[in-house]
Design goal:
The chain is α/β, with parallel strands linked by helices. It has helices spanning 21-33, 56-60, 85-98, 110-116, 127-132, 134-138, 140-146, and strands spanning 2-6, 10-18, 42-52, 77-81, 104-107. Strands 1-2-3-4-5 form a 5-stranded mixed sheet, with helices on both faces.
């Protein structure tokens, strides 16, 4: 399962349990099709609760919706977070294949990833949290780590 937590200038994408190739591709398409995506500066892919991730060959074999898209801005950053070195490397390869961000980095903890993307995480009482609404309620663990 994949949950999206929309923040003021970015997204935390929470990967939970075994993530399938279809879930990964659907998540990418959902992000690209959302009008808020054009305003984001970063994406933190949180794989801390992920137990399995598909091989890049499996993801590459699926039809891609919205194949003709571009990153929201030239300074866009993507952080990959996982405590597992093997899963972190697999996630990194998938990120390079799917978003082709010019700035993609791997991290073993959320604090370093937040710092790298300039740490613009909202406070619990912020308007951003209110705006995110159900996304935050559906992904409390990802939001807590993102803070």
């Amino acid at each position: 399962m994949i949950e999206h937590v929309w923040l003021e200038h970015g997204i935390v994408r929470w990967h939970i349990g075994a993530v399938s190739a279809q879930q990964y591709q659907f998540s990418n398409a959902e992000l690209r099709e959302d009008s808020r995506f054009s305003a984001v500066h970063y994406l933190i892919d949180d794989f801390l609760d992920c137990t399995a991730l598909p091989e890049i060959e499996l993801v590459a074999s699926l039809p891609v919706r919205c194949a003709d898209w571009a990153l929201p801005n030239a300074d866009f950053r993507q952080a990959i977070v996982s405590s597992s070195a093997a899963l972190r490397e697999r996630a990194y390869r998938l990120a390079l294949f799917s978003l082709s961000s010019p700035a993609t980095m791997k991290f073993s903890d959320m604090a370093k990833a937040r710092e790298w993307v300039k740490g613009d995480m909202p406070g619990r009482d912020s308007a951003t949290l209110q705006w995110a609404g159900a996304g935050i309620a559906a992904a409390p663990a990802a939001y807590a780590r993102a803070r």
